[in-house]
Backbone:
DNA sequence: TTGAAAGCGCTAACAT
DNA sequence: ATGTTAGCGCTTTCAA
C-alpha cells in the first residue's frame, strides 16, 4: 500500500503537502497540486482512514445496536439508517443484541473501543445496561424506537400509544365487540405504550379490555402465532385483534387461519409498523405504518448534531407521525380475488418532530 | 479517556508494561501485573482499538457488502454472518449496494480505507466492479451467494441449479403440466443457475419449458407479483410455478390470489431460500431452504483463513446443501385450517463443502 | 522482568 | 506556498 510519504517522494514535495491536497485544508500551488494529484493517481494512493482517525479523533463511523436485524422491521429500519448514514458520509458498524444483555454490552464496548463518532441504539429492553455504558462514555447517542423516560438521551420514535389508539379506534369502527391485543416484549416501551393505546381506546368506547386478552410476547411471527393460539383458547369469540407489530400480525393471521377463522370477516386484525411485506401477505394487512425514512433521517441528523456540537445537543425526543394503511385484514376491503394492491386510505397521528416533548400520556381521557 | 500512559503512571510502571498485561504478550511479574490491573480497573481504561490497528495492521473488523439488507433473505443472511463474526471476535461494517454500481464501489473503498481485515461480498450483479477493486487490493475476500466463474475468489453458496432442479422435480411429481419460472435479476448467477435447474428438470421430464414462461426480475415480492401477473396474462393456464426466491414467491402468491387462483389446488408453487417467513404466510410456502447458519459459518471461517494464512488461501468454492421443505403451496399439505405448522418432509441436494469444485453443470443429461 | 524508543500513517500547528 | 515537527495511542524490537 502506497502511503503518504511515497506520494510525497514521487511528487517531489513534503508529506504535509500531500495532506494539504487530499484534505483541501490548505492552499497549494496549482503546479504542485497537479504533481501531487498525478502521483496519487499513479500510485493508487488512498489515505489510511485508521491513521487519520487516530490523528483527528473522528472515525466517520457510527455504531448501530439493534435487537435483531433479521426481523423485517429492524431490517428495514437498519437499511434506512444505513442509507441515511451513507448520505452524510458515515459508515455503520452493526451489532445485534439478540436478547442477550451481555452481548449488547460487548457491542457497546466494541463500538467505543473502535472510536465510533456516535451510536444509534435500540436495546432489547428498556432497562438495558447499554444506556449506562453509553452515558458514561459521554459519546453522542440517539435512541430509536424505544422511549425510556428514565434515561436522558435524545430519542426518535413514533407516537406508539397514539398510533395504537387510532388503530384500535379503527377496529372499534368496524363494530367489533371482543378485543384482544398482542403486544411486544413487556420490557420495551413500544410494547407498553401500544398496549396502553389499545386499552385507552377501548376504555373511551366503553368496551371492556380484559387483561387476559392482552399478551406481551416477542416481536416475531412465531410469538404472534403462539400468543394468538393461546388467546383464542381462552376467548374463542375474539373478533378484533390489534397486533403491536406486523410480524406478530403475520403469526396471528397464520393462527387465525389454522383455527378456521376468516380474517376480515370473522375477525378484524390491524398490525403496526407498515413493513413492506404487509401489502403482500394474505389477507393484506391493515397496519399503522411507521415512516422508516423520516425516522432514519431524523436519527442520523440528531446524531450528527450531537457529534458536531456536543454542547448544544439536547436529550429531547422527536415524535414522528404514523399512518393507518387500510387494507383487507380489518375488513374494509374485500379479501383476495381481483383486488390488486390497495389504494390507501389513511389516518395519521400528528407529528411533533424535533421538539422537547413529553412522552404522550397514555391516557388523556375522552377527546 | 484514560490512556495507556495514565495507567502506567498510576501503576508506577512504564507504558510498555501496560501493553504487556493487556495483551498477555509478555511475561510480567505477579505484583506489577496486579498493580497494573488495579490501575486499569480504577481508571476504566480500555485500549484504543484504532491505535492498536494502526500499530498491528489488524482491525478485527470485516466489511459486508450486500445488495439490500432490508430484503428478508439478505437480512437473515447478514444477521447470521454478523453472528458468526461475533463468535470469532470480529465486528462487521455493513454496506448495501442498492443496485448502484457506484455505491458498491464506494463501499468497497470505504472498507479498504478503514482497513478491514477482509470483506464478504454479495454484489448486485456478477459483473460488479467491486470484484476488481477487491482483487487489486489483495485483501482477503469471500464471495457469497453469487458464483461467478470468471473471478478467482473463494466463494460459498448452495447448489443453485441442483436445488432448483429438485424443486422443479417436486412440482413435476404433482402431475403439473404448464410450468412457469420466476427467476432473479438476470445478471446474477443464482438467477441463471436456478432458471437452468428448472429448465433442465423439465427437459428431462419431456415437458416444454417455453421461454416466455420464464421471467428474470428482482428478488423482491413486488417484482414477483408483477412478473406473475405478466406471466398469467400470457399463459393463463399455468399450473406450476417455481420462484427463485421466497420473496418473489410471496409476490406470486399475492398475484395468484388476486386473480382468483387457489394455490396448492389450481396451481402449485415452490420457492427458494427458506426464509423464516415462509412458514407463516398463507398458504405456507414449500421451498428449497438454504442453510443460513452453515453458509455464514463457512463464509466467516474461510475469510478467517484468508486473513490468517494469506498464502494458503485458495479460491475454491464451497457448495452447501439445500433442503426441500414441503408445506402447502405445492399441494402436498391441505391449505389452511387446522394444519398447525408443518412437520417437514425433506429432500436434500448433496453438500460438497470446502472442496475445489466445479460449478455444477447446468445440465448433466438424464440422471 | 522491565524500560526506552522507534515506528504505524496521518493531521495540524508552527516555521520558513 | 511549502516544509518541519510534534503528537494521536498503541505494539514491538532491543537493551538493561
Residues:
Amino acid at each position: 500500500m502506497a502511503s503518504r510519504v511515497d506520494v510525497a517522494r514521487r511528487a517531489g514535495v513534503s508529506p504535509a503537502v500531500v495532506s494539504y491536497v487530499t484534505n483541501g485544508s490548505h492552499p497549494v500551488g496549482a503546479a504542485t497540486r497537479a504533481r501531487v494529484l498525478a502521483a496519487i493517481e499513479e500510485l493508487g494512493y488512498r489515505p489510511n482512514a485508521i491513521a487519520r482517525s487516530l490523528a483527528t479523533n473522528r472515525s466517520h463511523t457510527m455504531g448501530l445496536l439493534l435487537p435483531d436485524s433479521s426481523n423485517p422491521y429492524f431490517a428495514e429500519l437498519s437499511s434506512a439508517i444505513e442509507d441515511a448514514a451513507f448520505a452524510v458520509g458515515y459508515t455503520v458498524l452493526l451489532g445485534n443484541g439478540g436478547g442477550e444483555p451481555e452481548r449488547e454490552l460487548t457491542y457497546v464496548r466494541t463500538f467505543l473501543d473502535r472510536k465510533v463518532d456516535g451510536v444509534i441504539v435500540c436495546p432489547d429492553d428498556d432497562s438495558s445496561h447499554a444506556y449506562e455504558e453509553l452515558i458514561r462514555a459521554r459519546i453522542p447517542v440517539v435512541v430509536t424506537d424505544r422511549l425510556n423516560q428514565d434515561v436522558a438521551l435524545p430519542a426518535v420514535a413514533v407516537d406508539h400509544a397514539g398510533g395504537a389508539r387510532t388503530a384500535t379506534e379503527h377496529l372499534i369502527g368496524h363494530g367489533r365487540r371482543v378485543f384482544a391485543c398482542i403486544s411486544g416484549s413487556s420490557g420495551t416501551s413500544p410494547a407498553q405504550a401500544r398496549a396502553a393505546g389499545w386499552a385507552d381506546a377501548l376504555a373511551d368506547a366503553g368496551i371492556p379490555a380484559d387483561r387476559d386478552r392482552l399478551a406481551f410476547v416477542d416481536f416475531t411471527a412465531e410469538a404472534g402465532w403462539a400468543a394468538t393460539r393461546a388467546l383464542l383458547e381462552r376467548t374463542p369469540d375474539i373478533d378484533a385483534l390489534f397486533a403491536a407489530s406486523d410480524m406478530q400480525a403475520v403469526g396471528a393471521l397464520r393462527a387465525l387461519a389454522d383455527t378456521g377463522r376468516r380474517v376480515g370477516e370473522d375477525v378484524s386484525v390491524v398490525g403496526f409498523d407498515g413493513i413492506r411485506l404487509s401489502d403482500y401477505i394474505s389477507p393484506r394487512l391493515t397496519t399503522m405504518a411507521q415512516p422508516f425514512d423520516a425516522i432514519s433521517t431524523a436519527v442520523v441528523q440528531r446524531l450528527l448534531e450531537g457529534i458536531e456540537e456536543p454542547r448544544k445537543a439536547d436529550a429531547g425526543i422527536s415524535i414522528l407521525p404514523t399512518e393507518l394503511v387500510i387494507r383487507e385484514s380489518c375488513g374494509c376491503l374485500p379479501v383476495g380475488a381481483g383486488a390488486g394492491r390497495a389504494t390507501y386510505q389513511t389516518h395519521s397521528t400528528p407529528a411533533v418532530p424535533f421538539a422537547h416533548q413529553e412522552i404522550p400520556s397514555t391516557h388523556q381521557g375522552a377527546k
Notes: The first helix of chain A runs from residue 4 to 11. Chain A touches chain B through 62 residues (CB under 8 Å). Residues 333 and 339 of chain A are 8 Å apart (CA to CA). The radius of gyration of chain A is 25 Å.
